[in-house]
Specification:
The chain is α+β, with helices and mostly antiparallel strands. Helices cover about 40% and strands about 20% of the residues. The protein has three domains: about 5-35, no CATH class; about 80-285, Enterococcus faecalis V583 domain (Enterococcus faecalis V583 fold, Alpha-Beta Complex), CATH 3.90.1710.10; about 295-465, v583 fold, CATH 3.90.1700.10. Strand 16 (about 430-435) and strand 17 form a beta hairpin.
Length: about 475
């Protein structure tokens, strides 16, 4: 083409960078093209070369890890008191969400949850007494994830709390989670007080024995099948659990009626579950953990097996690097806030519930739950976009969990740390938001992107392990 021909041709613009530039060009010229380009993520100088050289070995390890994850068979097999069944639990132990953290670095909601937990246990009569004991060094703090547990939001598990027991029938490992309290002023959001303690005591003294007897009569409940059905019914089993809770209610209600002699207790237990749409969250979380944990220790695998937050740090673990944690500061979610609250009130991201995204659910399956956008903000088109983008950073599609809106395509499964770093694209998580001050509770819900920092560190660590 000659120079004269070039200037006589229609102007065509290609934008690399901020998308608003393209919008401006489109107002005054023919449609422009937006290039989806992201700057490279800084990693150790030799990491990319090492991982490229070991690509075949990594792919083989990833296939093994993903086969383990995909073939998991999580079943609810019972319920018991944490001190009786959670590995490593003692009378002086309190488990929390996210990677390891000490009292002095804990955020407001986590401190509030611990204060409430100590009052619930009878270790303190007032918040002031509880805070003094919490900071005394007499209480041992440990991540839920290091004890086979998962805990939503603050993730507090104390010795007397009832925990659901989920068994992966394929590999024999167990996962545990407390019972869901519902929304509002609840312990997991850092709230405490007489009403919070009274609810927890009712759950321990009434709801727990009712469910224990019912589960003993029902036998194991197939959670994998229940989650698959819930996705077809409009849940993503992280922030929307209405279908999952309804399916669990149908499964357990007949056995509650059969085994509970006290009709008032039976009615109260069933009404509590029926009135708490998020009850199933505390089953979907340990179901995902039970499937992911057996993949920890698959040498050479770049698959992420843990994502969690403690309100201060965001942490991940890889199958190929074992129990090692990789962390970076947690970020504040872009959320839909309740009346009277703003982003300035929000605590940075918190909770173990990102185990659902790690397992291919939650934000990864949000296209299956268009109604969720009413709770977390956005549009149904955004939900589709979020799920589609997650296929770019995963190595597989679920054999069991499907998204109807995508022609029943399997959910994106198996986050590959290499793809996260090399594409500069992080996982999306739909989440609840806690107030940054202890004792207040939930202030909103929304979408948060994981920070890149933990993935950078894990990428480099995997490279060094394969050097």
């Amino acid at each position: 083409m000659s120079l004269n021909d070039l200037f006589q041709s229609p102007l065509r613009a290609v934008n690399v960078g901020i998308e608003t530039f393209k919008d401006t060009v489109d107002k005054f010229a023919p449609p422009s093209v937006q290039v989806d380009w992201r700057p490279p993520v800084p990693v150790a100088p030799d990491s990319e070369k090492i991982l490229a050289k070991r690509a075949a070995r990594i792919e083989k390890a990833n296939r093994k890890a993903l086969d383990i994850i995909q073939s998991g068979a999580p079943r609810l097999v019972g319920i018991d008191i944490a001190l009786n069944v959670v590995p490593g639990m003692t009378k002086d132990t309190i488990l929390h969400s996210g990677p390891p953290i000490t009292w002095d670095r804990m955020c407001g909601p986590m401190r509030g949850g611990i204060i409430g937990g100590l009052m619930y246990e009878g270790r303190a009569k007032t918040p002031e007494e509880a805070e003094k004991l919490a900071a005394s060094g007499k209480i041992k703090y440990s991540p839920c994830h290091e004890h086979g547990c998962v805990g939503p939001m603050a993730g507090i598990v104390t010795p007397s709390m009832p925990v659901m027991i989920v068994k992966n029938e394929k590999f024999g490992n167990l996962a545990f989670c407390t019972l869901n309290e519902g929304l509002g002023k609840v312990l997991r959001y850092g709230a405490y007080g007489e009403d919070v303690t009274a609810r927890l005591k009712w759950m321990e003294q009434t709801l727990y024995p009712v469910l224990k007897a019912a589960l003993a009569a029902s036998g194991p409940i197939d959670l994998k099948n229940m989650i698959a059905q819930a996705l077809h019914m409009g849940d993503e089993v992280h922030n929307r659990n209405r279908a999952g809770t309804s399916l669990f209610y149908r499964a357990i209600a007949p056995f509650v009626i059969q085994t509970c002699e006290n009709r008032e207790d039976a009615a109260a237990a069933l009404n509590f579950i029926n009135g708490n749409d998020h009850f199933f969250l505390n089953l979907s979380m340990p179901a995902c953990k039970a499937c992911l944990d057996p993949a920890i220790g698959v040498k050479g695998s770049s698959i992420v097996v843990t994502m969690c937050r403690n309100g201060t740090d965001f942490g991940i673990r890889l199958a190929g690097t074992g129990p090692a944690w990789f962390t970076a500061p947690a970020e504040v979610p872009d959320a839909l806030y309740f009346a009277g609250f703003t982003k300035a009130d929000a605590n940075p991201d918190i909770g173990d519930s990102a185990i659902t995204e790690t397992g291919g659910l939650g934000g990864f399956a949000i296209a299956a739950a268009p109604a969720i956008v009413q709770f977390v903000g956005g549009t149904a088109a955004d939900a589709l976009r979020y799920s589609l983008s997650m296929y770019e950073i995963t190595d597989d599609e679920s054999r069991m969990y499907q998204i109807p809106a995508l022609d029943f395509r399997g959910t994106p499964t198996g986050i590959d740390v290499r793809k996260v770093v090399e594409k500069n694209m992080v996982p999306v998580i739909d989440t609840g938001v806690a107030h940054k001050k202890a004792g207040i509770g939930q202030v909103g819900a929304g979408i948060v992107s994981a920070p890149m920092g933990p993935f950078q560190k894990a990428y480099d660590a995997l490279a060094q392990a394969l050097k």
